[in-house]
Amino acid sequence: MATRKSKSKSKAKCCAETPLNLDGVSDGELLARLAKAVAHPARVTILRMLIERDSCVCGEIVGELPLAQSTVSQHLKILKESGLVQGDIDGPKVCYCVNKPMLKMLQTLVAGLK
C-alpha cells in the first residue's frame, strides 16, 4: 500500500524517548504482549507509518487507511497499551509516535527466538 508523506515535520513532545519500565515483566510475557499488538495487518501498517514519520495525528492515519476512524482508534489504543506507540493530546488532535526503545526491545526479543 502506498503512503503519502506527512506535511507536518515537527517533532511532537510525545516523540521524546520514554524510558522503559519493565519491572517484573519476563521476556516471554513482554514478547507475547508485543506480538499480540502487531498480530493484525492494520496495526502493522500503522506502526510502519509511524516509523516512517517523526509524528502523526489520528486524522492523517485514518486518511491513509481503508478503515473507519473508530477502527483506527481501536488499533491505536491496542498499540499504545502495548507500549509500542505513545500518544499525546494536542488540542483537538492526538499525536501518535513510535516508542523507539520499545520497538528496539521487540526487535531484540524476536531476534532471540533462534
Number of helices: 5
Straight-line distance between termini: 31 Å
Q: What sort of overall outline do the alpha carbons produce when their principal axes are compared?
A: globular
Task: Report the β-strand fraction as a percent range.
Answer: 5-15%
Structural class, from secondary structure content?
alpha+beta
Summarize model confidence as the mean pLDDT.
Answer: 82
CATH superfamily: Winged helix-like DNA-binding domain superfamily/Winged helix DNA-binding domain
CATH class: Mainly Alpha
The count of strands amounts to 3
In which range does the helix fraction lie?
A: 40-55%
The radius of gyration over CA amounts to 14 Å
Number of domains: 1
SSE ordering: HHEHHEEH
Strand order of the largest sheet: 1-3-2
In the CATH hierarchy, the third-tier topology is known as Arc Repressor Mutant, subunit A
- Poorly predicted parts: 1-11
CATH architecture: Orthogonal Bundle
Major beta sheet, specifics?
3 strands, antiparallel
